[in-house]
Design goal:
By secondary structure, the chain is mostly helical. It is built from seven helices and no strands. Helices cover 68% and strands 0% of the residues. Helix 2 packs across helix 6.
């Protein structure tokens, strides 16, 4: 599931949101309080104004993230992660479900499933 969605987003050059969301999940589940995961700069590529993988969040949320990263915790990106989730839910995921990429994959799975029932 997530790997296929991420692969689709890469074809659209818009995989930064799902990459960030997955990184937040890793941080949230970390047993080390997140500090080892956060540095050196794992999140900088998502939050700096000119970052190569800059995520789509508003300025107040970006400023809060930059502040939170100074004293990282497992929950320091909860709000940013929520915003990204909503963006994906409303924009990229519905596009994914309508995409030729997904439709062909779904057809392939359905076809192979039907063939295995016959054999």
């Amino acid at each position: 599931g997530p790997v296929i969605y991420k692969t689709y987003l890469k074809t659209e050059h818009s995989d930064e949101n799902v990459e960030f969301w997955l990184a937040c999940e890793t941080l949230r589940r970390s047993r080390h309080g997140g500090k080892a995961f956060l540095w050196p700069g794992n999140f900088k590529s998502y939050i700096q104004p000119q970052a190569p993988n800059k995520i789509n969040i508003d300025s107040p949320a970006r400023k809060a993230m930059i502040k939170n990263i100074q004293e990282p915790t497992q929950s320091c990106f909860v709000e940013a992660q929520r915003i990204i989730y909503v963006h994906m839910e409303r924009d990229s995921y519905p596009r994914f479900l309508e995409s030729k990429f997904y439709q062909e994959l779904k057809h392939s799975i359905q076809t192979s499933g039907n063939n295995s029932m016959v054999n």
